[in-house]
Amino acid sequence: MRIDILTTFTEMFPPVLGASILGRAAQKGILEFNLCDIRQYSENKHHNTDDYPFGGGAGMVMLAQPIYSCLDAVDPEHKARRILLSPRGRTLSPEVARELAKEEHLLFLCGHYEGIDERVSCAMDEELSIGDYVLTGGELAAMVAIDCIARFIPGVLGSSESAETESFSDGLLEYPQYTRPREFEGLTVPEPLLNGNHAHIVDWQMSESLYITLRRRPEMAQAYLKGRKFTRHEQKVVNAVLERIREEDEKAKRDSEPAEETT
């Protein structure tokens, strides 16, 4: 996959794109990164890429001309799927990442300052947000999006199962992970992970994922429970988790009640 990144801060990307999993994927030729400095395409004599907004207001707005010129130079035939990183875009999710991972060519436009001239949106295919918060620029958002999308591209991860067994992949948060030693500072690895029984391990993983999701993201857990048909055995696992939570909540309620006074 080719990934073009249009930004005024190209120096932010090499440490991220050249390291770890993304760096190895680039070395293998699975990913090709192309950093484009928007400032180089400014026709202003000072090569600035922003100006004051019409109508007043705080901050500066990125000019349309340098961005359009950069797009024409990098993707003249509009073969790339052009994405503007923006808080108002659709939210990045595993489903969105899988969809974008199927593309052969992606282009990310990183906004900065107070925003981008609205006329630039005519040249883009969509807007993408990484969450309901605002950053100083789209550079960090682009890095997050690229890292998330890359994990669904065949060959990027060491294991073909990795992207499908992590948090959110099946609607639940991921179960706890352990490695050697078996005991550390009095804390031991759960027995189901040590007995070599694959069926027990799968049950434990499902149980822990559901439990953690119910505790930390109940809305996600409820959607999972409503949207999936369970086998009889899986339903037993689900029921056991629900009973575990019920008992814990009842105990917590009893413990929080003031003790009765005696005379």
List the helices and strands and how they pair.
Elements: E1 2-7, H1 14-17, H2 20-27, E2 32-37, E3 50-51, E4 61-62, H3 64-74, E5 81-91, H4 94-101, E6 105-110, E7 115-116, E8 126-129, H5 138-150, E9 183-184, E10 187-188, H6 198-216, H7 218-227, H8 232-256
Helix pairs in contact: 4-5, 6-7, 6-8
* Global geometry: elongated
- Largest β-sheet summary: 5 strands, parallel
What's the helix count? 8
Q: What is the helix fraction of residues, given as a range?
A: 25-40%
Mean pLDDT figure: 94
What is the number of strand segments?
10
Distance between the termini: 77 Å
Strand content: 15-25%
- The ordered H/E elements are EHHEEEHEHEEEHEEHHH
Gyration radius (Cα, Å) is 25 Å
Numbering strands along the chain, what is their spatial order in the largest sheet?
2-1-6-5-8
Low-confidence stretches: none
Going by helix content, strand content and strand pairing, the class is: alpha/beta
Give the gist of this structure.
This protein has 263 residues and is of the alpha/beta class. The protein has eight helices and ten strands. It has helices spanning 14-17, 20-27, 64-74, 94-101, 138-150, 198-216, 218-227, 232-256; strands spanning 2-7, 32-37, 50-51, 61-62, 81-91, 105-110, 115-116, 126-129, 183-184, 187-188.
